[in-house]
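Worked example 3 (structure in, sequence out).
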């Protein structure tokens, strides 16, 4: 891809070449800052986990939590996981970082349960590369044993690109299901997984990508897509969550489709563990 950009830039002439090489140098600098920083971030404890509530759309009550990683970089400030996770995948640090997130979330979940608080479900994002590492299932098994967090309340979120290799994902999912954990397909609708493949895998939940949710209720294409995904999930016996709900009209439209669960700023931003505790009391009122 880099050499294609180079060739294209050369074709465009001298200024184009300078422009592109400058941009490529910028990208390389950023990558180096991130890669070197990631090595230090683990040992210097610069990572944190926030938790975003999910809501039952029928009554707006808390139905689950998603663990979301944050990196507080000493000089660059807060860096989004969308920027550094791909770098961690490329330089092979994702296994270590992912294991830390899973352990931190399960420890916290177990602490809340021990305090008598409600943690209906705890979702942890796992990158495809991390899930494909040979001892992934063993690591999850060890963390569940070590923390005591109930496997039935743990959900693993992975994007639909895992489905490209059906045999492999069937073997993996089957082993994870045997532990008792649930499996969700994240950002659904952005990949190209065929519906028949989805049917052949033990998937508990589909999460509708927020780009479709955010175009609701005006965009006809997004309305049809959401409707189709909700019906698909229903006919396959899977649960469905809509991500990125920001407005009441988005919430109402999804509820009218009988989408059972929602997540987004309308209900809550991702919160630190201390800010979240009050929302986990057994008789806590609706999120919005
Ligand atoms: P995701 O798993 O799809 O997570 C949802 C993202 O949407 C989060 O972004 C969340 O903060 C954001 N979000 C939630 N509600 C709204 C809303 O109403 N409006 C808008 N505009 N955004 C909303 P975040 O935390 O920046 O994470 C981005 C992505 O990074 C995640 O997308 C996930 O793919 C990845 N990620 C986060 N934590 C981890 C992790 O521990 N491991 C791995 N492998 N990936 C992670
Ligand atoms: Mg997710
Ligand atoms: Mg998502
Ligand atoms: Mg996403």
């Amino acid at each position: 891809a880099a050499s294609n950009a180079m060739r294209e830039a050369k074709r465009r002439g001298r200024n184009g070449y300078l422009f592109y090489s400058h941009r490529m140098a910028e990208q390389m600098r950023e990558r180096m800052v991130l890669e070197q920083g990631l090595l230090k971030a683990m040992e210097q404890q610069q990572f944190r986990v926030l938790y975003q509530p999910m809501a039952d759309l029928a009554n707006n009550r808390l139905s689950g939590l998603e663990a979301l990683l944050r990196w507080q970089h000493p000089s660059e400030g807060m860096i989004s996981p969308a920027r550094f996770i791909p770098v961690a995948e490329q330089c092979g640090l994702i296994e270590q970082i992912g294991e830390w997130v899973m352990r931190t979330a399960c420890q916290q979940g177990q602490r809340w349960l021990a305090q008598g608080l409600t943690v209906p479900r705890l979702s942890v994002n796992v990158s495809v590369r991390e899930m494909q590492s040979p001892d992934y299932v063993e690591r999850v098994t060890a963390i569940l044993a070590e923390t005591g967090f109930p496997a039935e309340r743990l959900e693993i979120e992975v994007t639909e690109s895992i489905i490209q290799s059906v045999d492999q994902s069937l073997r993996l999912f089957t082993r994870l299901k045997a532990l008792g954990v649930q499996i969700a397909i994240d950002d659904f609708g952005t990949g190209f997984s065929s519906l028949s493949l989805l049917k052949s895998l033990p998937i508990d939940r589909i999460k509708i990508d927020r780009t479709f949710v955010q175009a609701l209720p005006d965009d006809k294409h997004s309305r049809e897509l959401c409707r189709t995904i909700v019906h698909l999930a229903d006919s396959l016996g899977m649960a469905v969550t809509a991500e990125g709900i920001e407005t009441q009209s988005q919430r109402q439209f999804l509820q009218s489709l009988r989408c059972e669960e929602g997540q987004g700023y309308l209900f809550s931003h991702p919160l630190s563990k201390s800010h979240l505790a009050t929302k986990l009391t057994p008789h806590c009122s609706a999120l919005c």
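Notes: Residues 66, 125, 157, 186 surround magnesium ion (ligand 2) (CB under 6 Å). Residues 14-43 form the longest helix (30 residues).
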